[in-house]
Amino acid sequence: QVQLVESGGGSVQAGGSLRLSCAASGFTYRSYCMAWFRQAPGKEREGVAVIYLGAGSPYYADSVKGRFTIPQDNAKNTLYLEMNSLKPEDTAMYYCAADRFGCGLGIRSFHYWGQGTQVTVSS
Fold it and tell me: pLDDT tens for residues 59-71?
């Protein structure tokens, strides 16, 4: 059974940094695509960053390009979201997602989702 468990959320001031973790289990890690999404109150869930774990370059939404990265630890089956230069508009619930076939920044590309972790950025 596929499981995705996020951690690392919290509160930070604008300009600060946070690292989120997504521990994956129940599937062959390197044969999947994984992504980070976020959803702010009253807004639709949006894709932040995506990568095909087997062999691919990450792709980032324009809103986070140059500030966020998604390093991996293949030995731990864990995908991270490194967030730097955080802005108040980055405040949202952040979700990890995975899929065997879909890969993109659209929510319909992903079948499996974590429970989310809250990130709050104050000005």
Answer: 999 999 999 999 9
